[in-house]
Amino acid sequence: MRARLNVDRGRFPGSYITVWRFICPNNIVLMGTNHTTESNSIIQWPSESVGYVAVLLAFITGIIHLVATTRAIEMSVVLAVLFVLNGLGFLGGAALYFTRFWRRSFFLAAAVYSLVTILALFPFQGWGVEAFYMNGAINPIVTVTKVAEAFLVIASVYLYSSTSN
């Protein structure tokens, strides 16, 4: 005869207790208990300070892209939509990072996303250093955004390499 594994969870203040029982036709055998301090909370805080830096960088570039939408719409509606989607992508990624749904592979996705966003500047603004200039002067908005995205690439790769599965 084969035993069936059944898991019962009883709530205790500040923790969960898991009781494993093998239910056999004639008896119940208590196999052990496991005290944990797990939480069912959706929010999980980063364990490394670099994670907070990455979120700050994503927040900076996300907000700048959303604000820059007002100027982008003067050039093209498609460009404005891309700016909105890009800004929401950075903010959504930063929000996702604070949840239990975050996975290690998302660090690589964040690095690639940021790198693609850096490279996307050049077809619209020019293929050299002139992409960072507007009316003969350095454009601080573009410069801050691209520097934040470059550091986000570095932080994401670092977090990927320092995080275990």
Structure explained in plain terms:
With 165 residues, the protein is α+β, with helices and mostly antiparallel strands. 56% of the residues lie in helices and 19% in strands. The chain is built from four helices and five strands, in the order βββαααββα. The chain has a three-stranded antiparallel beta sheet with strand order 1-2-3, with no helix packed on it. It has a two-stranded antiparallel sheet with strand order 4-5. A hairpin with a 4-residue loop joins β2 and β3 (28-36). α1 runs antiparallel to α2 and α1 (49-75) runs antiparallel to α4 (140-162). The chain is elongated, with a radius of gyration of 24 Å. It starts with a strand and ends with a helix. 17% of the residues are buried.
Give the SSE layout.
Blueprint: E1 4-12, E2 15-23, E3 28-36, H1 49-75, H2 77-97, H3 105-125, E4 133-134, E5 137-138, H4 140-162
Antiparallel strand pairs: 1-2, 2-3, 4-5
Helix pairs in contact: 1-2, 1-4, 3-4
Nutshell version of this structure?
The protein is α+β, with helices and mostly antiparallel strands. It is 56% helix and 19% strand.
